[in-house]
Amino acid sequence: MFRFRSLALMAGIAALTVGAAAQAQDWSTIKGQIILKNAPAPGLIDVNNDKAHCLAKGPLVTESLIVNAKTNGVKYVVVWLRPDTENRKDAFPADKINPALAKAAPVDRVIDQPCCQFEPRVLAARTGDKLVVKNSAPVAHNIKVSADDPVFTFNVNLPPGGNHKPDGGLTAQSSAIPFECNVHTWMKGYLRVFDHPYFAVTDADGKYEIKDAPVGKWRLVIWQEGGFHKGKEGVLGMPVEVKGAVTEVPAVELKLPQAAP
Prior knowledge:
Layout: H1 2-24, E1 27-35, H2 51-54, E2 66-67, E3 74-75, E4 78-83, H3 99-102, E5 108-111, E6 122-126, E7 130-134, E8 141-145, E9 154-158, E10 163-164, E11 177-180, E12 188-194, E13 199-201, E14 207-214, E15 216-224, E16 227-228, E17 238-242, E18 246-248, E19 252-253
C-alpha cells in the first residue's frame, strides 16, 4: 500500500513539474540591440541662459540622437511588441499578458532636470503609472507636457528642489508625448505610454530587454524621436517569433526615416 501511495505521489509531483515547465515555455525574454554606423557627431548647444550652471560640467551637446562611438549602440530608442496584424490600432490581447505583469502595481516614472538637460530624455510607461517631474538643479526650470489626456497637459515652473506630480495615472496614447523646458529652450524630451507591459527603452549601448513576453508571432516596433525605423513602413513593426527562454533578436541598424505619423 505504501509503495502505491509513493508512486502516486511521485507521479503527481512529476505532473506538476511538467506543467510548470510547459507554463514557463509560454514566456520568453526578448533581447536585442539598435545600432547606427557612421552616425553624425552631435552638435554644440548655444547656451544662452544660466551659463554658469549649465556649462559647469563642460559644453552641452545635442541629444536628439545619441550613439555610442565604441558599440554603435543608439540610446533612447523605444521598442515594443504589437499584434502580428496590418491594423496599427489593434490592441495588445489582454489574455496574452503574463499574469504576474497583468497584476503589477503602477510605478513612478521620473523626469529630472539636473544640469540643463532632461534625464531621461526619452522614457516609456504603462497606463496607470505615475508621472513625477523633479528639478534637482540649483536654478529654476519649467516643464511643458502636451498629452491627449488633459491631466497630463500642463506647463509648470519648478524652483530649485521643486517637483510636480499630477493626480491620477498616465493614459496610453498612440503618439509620443513631447515635453520641453521654456526657460532653457534646447531642453526637450518624449514619453510614450502603452496599455501593456511589453516595451523597453535602449540603454547607452543600444541594448534592450523585454521580459515575460508571450511566445508566438508578433511585430517588434522600433521608434526613435526622429520617427519610426524605416519610416511609414516601420509603423507596423517587423515580424519576430518569440520562443524559448530567451529570444535573441539580431542587431537592427536604425534607418532614420522621414518623419512618420
